[in-house]
Task: structure prediction
Amino acid sequence: GVQIAAHVIDLDREGGDLGPLPAAPEARARRPFESVAEALGHDLRAATSVGSDLLRSAPAAARAVVRDPIGAASGVAGELASAARMLRPVTSTASPVMAERGLQRHFELLDVDLEALRRGAARRGATVNDAFLAGIAGGLRLYHLTHGSDVAELRVTMPISIRGEDDAMGGNHVTLVRFDLPLDVADPDERLARIHEICDRQRHEPAIEHSEAIAGLLNLLPVGVTAGMLRHVDLLVSNVPGLDVEVYVAGAKVEAFYAFGATLGSAANITLMSYAGTCHIGVTTDVAAVADPDELVRCLRAGFDEVGG
Result:
């Protein structure tokens, strides 16, 4: 999305000459069910890519077994365990406060100073993303306590980029990871350190390199199965690195970027997009799950103040 936006925005109010427009593509009527066939073909190719990878790596794997049978067996076990963690079913929500689901959505805005988050992260050798999650954890801890619930952790889904240097612009090059976000740590520095360890483990999960194939397998499952897996996730969180400088669109200065993120069956979507020194955070909530979104935002602001204080 940020790459596409680069073709829309300008660095000054006047803008630049984009040159002649390319020729319009020739219109073509699509045949019935052509899109469905393409989607199924994509999922089948993704699902079978693991088998192809295994066949290509078989000779090297055989040599590894001969040289170090115990290490090779351990590596295979690690890959399988990692895939199981990515695919493990979620049958209930962890939050007793945000358990209901409905069809209405509410949208709130929250701004956080980017430099404050960076300072908070630097105290523990963590990243801005770690500090973002730590602020959310602190805010949700306070929110649950105000509702009389001392929950230990929440189930979170977060997209991470798997885009390579050679990947073309556009398209989805992300995978979703699920992990438990700790809410039982009162000290903000200790909480940040815990979350840094959790995120580091997620980034190095062996199954990440097979995530596209795993997603293809999930797409082949009945909709009710995958919908049930998403419905019991408490929170969807995303961090989108934005632009460091002020930009313009059609001569108008852009004041802020806020993401209206889909909840995908969770109680809320909290998405950060940084822009010109400020973290603009969009908080989309399921009205049935969060009856008091203004209180949630107040608690989140307090959580970010803890991390950046």
